[in-house]
């Protein structure tokens, strides 16, 4: 047999391996696509702007988007179950202005922070109960949570409240630097949230139940999984993440403002979808959502470097969302064909 005879066999073998890989790892394709897009963006930015990939600039990606990472983690769990949470931006605003108000009244930070997290958890609990026990659609239930949290934010204060508590400001102003790279406590908190969620989703019974509910809620019930408790709990976790994001944003901006976070829930959902989480539920990765936030932050920073209108940010993210939703539909259709 000559070398020419083996070439078709090798090509066929490669095609077979590639096809097998796609079949076994189809759910990873959107996330891998997001990684490719992030790499292309960074390379393109480096070609256009020589200092774009400087350590300080890349460190700022985490610093500027820490609160969005935390929101995206909570939303990832909700969306994997097949739900949605539109309240997270308003919860972030409510807990942020509540934090600033309580601090201004003299309460210490070690009491204010648990109150913030509890406030977010209560709103998440309300949404979860509406969804699970009253059969309210997640869109409607979370929309009610959005209006509730935003209204509570305006009840606390109609104007911005400056934060001067050193413990809160320490979260943002403290920087640990190594060779031009730096990280702040807010960045560390965001990465810890990602790490904890990754562990929970892949190595605990709760995480497996979340994926099972998204795949088929009826099948999850038949397997004896605690569907009701899990569905309520993912909304509580999303609310806690909203409260924690409020803390990070308050530390970042140095003030609480009742109009913070308007539209931020859409940014977080966009990041989650770009990161590979299917809106139909059952498939998604916390690390993918982190990549989605980094793609979002890179586009935003690139537009800022170019001096272009910020409206281009919405156009580009909208186009990316369209592409990823089409990819998701293709994955779902392919999975359904395999199941027949």
From TrEMBL:
Q: What are the entry keywords?
A: Cell membrane, Membrane, Sugar transport, Transmembrane, Transmembrane helix, Transport
Q: What is the lineage of its organism?
A: Bacteria, Bacillati, Actinomycetota, Actinomycetes, Micrococcales
**Lineage top rank: taxon:** Bacteria
**TM spans (from-to):** 28-49, 61-80, 111-133, 139-158, 179-201, 232-254, 266-299, 311-332
Q: Name one GO cellular component term.
A: plasma membrane
Q: How does it sit in the membrane?
A: Multi-pass membrane protein
Query: Where does this one sit in the cell?
Result: Cell membrane
Name of the molecule in the record? Simple sugar transport system permease protein
The organism of origin for this protein: Microbacterium immunditiarum
Q: Which residues form a coiled coil?
A: none
Which Gene Ontology molecular function entries are recorded, alphabetically? transmembrane transporter activity
Q: What is its main location?
A: membrane
